[in-house]
Amino acid sequence: MTESGRAPSEAGAAVGRRIGIGLMYGLWRPRVLGAWKVPSAGPVILAVNHSHGIDGPMLMGTAPRPVHFLIKKEAFVGPLDPFLRGIGQLKVDRDATDRKAITDAVGVLERGGVLGIFPEGTRGEGDFASLRAGLAYFAVRSGAPVVPVAVLGSTDRTSRLNPAIPPLRGRVDVVFGDGFQAGDGSGRRTRKALDEATVRIQERLTAHLAEARRLTGRRPTL
């Protein structure tokens, strides 16, 4: 449940998707590849690399289904707090075991929704080099397929006010990969099983990122 005692709203996430479509296609030039690889129904986890400040909204606007993202609690300030909760997004405390966020995220998957996760935990190089265990937990517990997503933004212009955001009207490539099961089929959620699932996930995400760069012609440094 959210802080208001209600489950994250699928209708709210649908509104968020429409807002994302308007903003992302209005301000940038997204090129979407492989969106058909996202299952049209049922629970699914989108595992997204995170190197730009617009990665979350970009996915909300380009994914074929409404997405509930786990977003750091620091973003829920002032008027953004009710807005983000209203569009079905999930607040998470990255510095502690956030049971409320876990319950909300599991609930999204149990209801057949789409959960968006930045498995690196925070914005960085966006190369999936360091993964947290949260993604493995949700994937193994729910049995939902993990669809890797690479967001590759333009860095051709360097004189920008905010280097974390691609230049306006710049091309941003969003590449969806093949879904896969993170678990070994046993259903085990032991620490060893989750560690093995995390390694399995990292290998698949890293391979997808390399393939996405090949398909789009992006340099490895992006």
TrEMBL record:
One of its GO terms (biological process) is phosphatidic acid biosynthetic process. Residues 44-154 form the Phospholipid/glycerol acyltransferase domain. Keywords: Acyltransferase, Transferase. GO terms for cellular component: plasma membrane. InterPro entries: Plipid/glycerol_acylTrfase. It comes from the Bacteria. SMART domains: PlsC. GO terms for molecular function: 1-acylglycerol-3-phosphate O-acyltransferase activity. Coiled coil: none annotated. This is Acyl-phosphate glycerol 3-phosphate acyltransferase. It comes from Streptomyces natalensis ATCC 27448. The keyword Phosphoprotein does not apply. PANTHER family: 1-ACYL-SN-GLYCEROL-3-PHOSPHATE ACYLTRANSFERASE.
